[in-house]
Known about the structure:
The chain is α/β, with parallel strands linked by helices. It has three domains: 9-103, Alpha-helical ferredoxin (Fumarate Reductase Iron-sulfur Protein, Chain B, domain 2, Orthogonal Bundle), CATH 1.10.1060; 118-210 and 347-388, FAD/NAD(P)-binding domain (3-Layer(bba) Sandwich), CATH 3.50.50.60; 220-342, FAD/NAD(P)-binding domain, CATH 3.50.50.60. Helix content is 34%, strand content 18%. The protein has 14 helices and 14 strands. The protein has helices spanning 9-17, 26-29, 37-45, 49-59, 63-69, 75-78, 90-103, 126-137, 165-176, 226-231, 249-260, 281-289, 362-365, 370-388, and strands at 118-122, 141-145, 181-184, 202-205, 224-225, 241-245, 265-269, 293-295, 298-306, 309-320, 323-326, 332-337, 339-342, 357-359. Strands 3-2-1-4-14 form a five-stranded parallel beta sheet, covered by helices on one side. Strands 5-13-6-7-8 form a five-stranded parallel beta sheet. Strands 9, 10, 11 and 12 form a four-stranded antiparallel beta sheet that branches. A hairpin with a 2-residue loop joins strand 10 (309-320) and strand 11 (323-326). It is globular. The two termini are 44 Å apart. The structure holds iron/sulfur cluster (SF4) (2 copies).
Amino acid sequence: MGDKRYLNKAQLKAELEKCLHCASKPCMKACPVSCCPYGFIEAAKSGDMEKAARLILEANPLGQTCGLVCPDHFCMKACLRAKIDAAIRIPKVQATILEEARSQGMKIRTNMPLKGKKVAVVGAGPAGMAAVSVLRNFGYAVEIFEKENQVGGAMNLIPDFRLQYADILKDWDDIFAQEGIVLHLSTDVAEPQKLLDKGFDGVIVAIGESDYTLLGIEGEEFSIPYSEYLKNPEKYPFRGNVAVVGGGAVAVDCAVSAKQNGAEYVEMVVRRRVPDMRITVEERKTLLENQIDISSMTRVCKIEKDNKGLIVSSCKTKFVDGKLVDEEGTLIKRGYFDAVILALGSRKPSLEEGEKFLLAGDCKSGSSTVVEAVASGKDAAERLHQILD
Ligand code: SF4
Ligand code: SF4
């Protein structure tokens, strides 16, 4: 396997050997989908890759995708091996097991019989895909409606160096290969509630978040929303300075993409302190490796434009009684920037659950990681099954 995102044979063996087989299974308890590293590591260690792969997919239908993008604050943070030397690189182990099993053509999914009921899932992001998988396992026929011309939803905003569309398809193709699943791409469902009148026994809506958060400052219209930028970074061949406003994982993706696509200098502007940034150890390392600068305790106050580019006015912030406020006399103007990318997150659409009409993923609980969206999709499918069964 030449892909550095996966472990080679020797590395995989070394990681598997490190497992202490902790009886309390802290790694599983820390996983949002209750995937069990204890179990799949044990199966892989005994040479049964097929069983290991099945165990992963039973808990997480997007097991390979999550193996490539899961942050280190779930299973890895709980891994007791860290008390001896370092935590087992569980996400990489998980991704490698599935890559290995799939490249060897192992049969890792069971096709359950259909039971005659039909459910609609709106949105083919991680929550929608997970819901489809769980519903199909319960025996429901499922039709899935996606407004874009491809599956994956917000996962398609993750840069290629972390996750490629082909990776998402490895998980999706396994789900979709089962009879009784129909996918409608490029199909926007304006009123998902009405699907209940069109022959569906239940509906799960997993459309993600819609509006991105704005700064509410003068000149905001000169900025680029992260969702626009990450959809197609090659469309924006910046060569000079780029400012990324925001300090989370999505902001890191924007900053690294801008740098790797040719920007000379990339700076993240963060209102809080660097330790407050909600990013993983891996993401911090990526920022350093890509020489991304961070202006912490800084707020962007205004963006102006002239014929040389963008001028960004910012001021320092400080904590007063636990609240962030602007520090007087610190306003400065800096130019020139090729671009200001806004990466402050998104907003939930206003939708409410009803009987047989359930929400899943970011449109239910706000921005989350892929694995949390999968957990939410599974949960919605299980709740709907309880209602319909
Ligand atoms: S916590 Fe770590 S060492 Fe213990 S069973 Fe889980 S993966 Fe193995
Ligand atoms: S799904 Fe993610 S969080 Fe859960 S065990 Fe696997 S890698 Fe860890």
